[in-house]
Design goal:
alpha/beta; single chain; 4-stranded parallel beta sheet; two-stranded parallel ribbon; 147 residues; 18% strand
């Protein structure tokens, strides 16, 4: 990245192999075998939604995970709830996997002492539409075991 405000670069052995570490000003932290395939021919939407249109409050720390529900194991969700308990004035912004699943997730959050209102759903969208989700609204992406 070449910045002076980032200490680490989280990557993988394909996109950022350790033998290229000399080209990074940050320390490389490599995730075990993973790789996100990208396509530079996908279009970018003209306008991204506002923070308010995303259902995100203005004055909170936003954790996010847009992973598929199959990757969200109970123990991972438990860790996320512990994080929310330790970080007041924060929310978890996750992909909406349907009313039934969202109700269950909010119920599980409540059982762990986290207000269900702190779980904010992002509409499920086509892969190329993920570019519309403003990363600047999020502060930290929470990984799953399979991210």
């Amino acid at each position: 990245m070449g910045t002076d405000f980032m200490e680490y670069f989280i990557g993988d052995s394909i996109a950022s192999p350790i033998e290229h570490s000399e080209f990074f000003s940050e320390k490389l932290l490599l995730i075990p075998p993973s790789y996100v395939i990208t396509n530079n021919r996908q279009g970018r939407p003209d306008k991204a939604p506002t923070r308010s249109e995303c259902g995100l409050p203005d004055d909170v720390f936003v954790f996010c995970s847009f992973s598929d529900i199959r990757k969200m194991e109970a123990r991972v969700f438990g860790v996320w709830m512990n994080i929310l308990l330790r970080v007041p004035n924060s929310v978890l912004w996750i992909t909406d996997h349907g009313n039934s699943i969202m109700k269950k997730l909010k119920k599980r959050a409540n059982e762990r002492g986290v207000s269900p209102q702190r779980i904010i759903s992002a509409p499920k969208i086509e892969h190329y539409e993920h570019y519309r989700r403003p990363v600047s609204y999020t502060h930290l992406t929470l990984p799953t075991i399979y991210s």
